[in-house]
Amino acid sequence: MRIAIGGQVEKQEIQQLVKAAGGEQVNVVIKSDLEAAMLIKSGGADYYLGACHTGGGGALAMAIALLGKPQCATISMPGKKPVKEQVEQAVESGAKAFGFTGDHKEQAVEYVMGALLKQYT
């Protein structure tokens, strides 16, 4: 599974969390939000994860513009932590890009990677 890390904050930490969760099953690259969204659109990556301070602005703006809103999911916002069932539903609905706030990165990556890895096993 190929994961592109975009967004505006916490990129190195998110990359480490994705690698820890996915192990040998994931290939992770860090790009600008535009480059990461382009990788998804071109088929160069399977999924996009990005963080910003709002969970949807800088984290997902380019992904929404290039992929369309139905393929994007804001899974956390200030004061609203990720909910495992909602993340699983977004994955099952075909979301390819996931945005969240930097302070929720551990839980967001855990839920997203758990849902994605279920599809690959």
TrEMBL record:
This is DUF2620 domain-containing protein. InterPro entries: DUF2620. Pfam families: DUF2620.
